[in-house]
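During the practical work, I selected for study one protein's amino acid sequence and its C-alpha cells, as given directly below:
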Amino acid sequence: MTVLDAVNEGADGCEHHGARLLASLEPGWVYALPDAPHGAAIRVFQAADGIRPFCWIDGPRTESSQLSRAENRARHNR
C-alpha cells in the first residue's frame, strides 16, 4: 500500500499499517502497490474508517479529532 497525505508525501507499507496511518491523516489517500492483492486499497480505506487517529497515544478521547470517522458519524446521527 502507498498512503499519501495532503501534499502527496507518501509511505509504503502493509494493509494493517497503511490503515493505521490513513486513519491519522486528514485528508489522506491510499493506493495499492502493483503486487498488492485485489481489493487491498478498499480494505485499507474501510479499516481506517474505524481506527482512531494516532491510536498509539493514550488518554481520554472526547474531542471529535480524537475519534474515528465512524465514531464521529455515529455521534452526529443521534
Summary: The chain has a mean pLDDT of 91. Residues 15 and 31 are 10 Å apart (CA to CA).
